[in-house]
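Milestone M4 deliverable, item 7.
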Amino acid sequence: METAPVGAGLENDPPYLNAVGVGESDLSPREILDRLLAIERAAGRTRPYTGAPRTLDLDLILAGSAVVNEEGLQVPHPRFRERRFVLGPLVELEPDVTDPVTGQTARELLARLAD
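Output delivered:
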């Protein structure tokens, strides 16, 4: 899904290509995040400052029913409920996946955004 960047100062940035992947893992949420960050680094992503342009941005949105709030890791992702570019593709793959914080399905969260 191609979307315009969201946020102050990003109005002139090119569109982003967004996607969602769904799978199963025996890894902990921290281990999954560490692997995602390693993929970003291998693709050339640097983080010179907050909000810097990026070649790749991989986020851990949900990890089953886990709720994690640690330094550098929040699961569910703290802003996924307000992001159509996350919920739209997620509903296409797993419409009934449940947010462990609200108890709502991805489909319900997306419908709430449409209102």
